[in-house]
């Protein structure tokens, strides 16, 4: 028996608006929840004269599109560091309300759940 292929997903959402910590709504009224945050180790420059930007922490967020019901906010305290709005930007990226860019690492579907993985780019990557 052949494995059932997931139906193709369309384009990623144009905008994601903050609803509650870790919960967003897109332009179609669909609910997206931050289900996982991954903190990537920073590559700090050696020496005391290193600019502040070298101390940035990489951040990857996994968002799942859930049925149109408002879920409880995730318990992860880091979701408060996410932007209040993401807007689709050219080049498979989103721009947050803080002007930071987030690269779309993956946009797909697992079983019946659409998912979106975004990685925050270092400041100055415009």
From TrEMBL:
It comes from the Eukaryota. SUPFAM superfamilies: Oncogene products. GO terms for molecular function: protein serine/threonine kinase activator activity. Signal peptide: none annotated. Gene3D superfamilies: TCL1/MTCP1 (2.40.15.10). Belongs to the TCL1 family. PANTHER family: PROTEIN P13 MTCP-1, T-CELL LEUKEMIA_LYMPHOMA PROTEIN 1B. This is TCL1 family AKT coactivator B. It comes from Capra hircus (Goat). The gene is TCL1B.
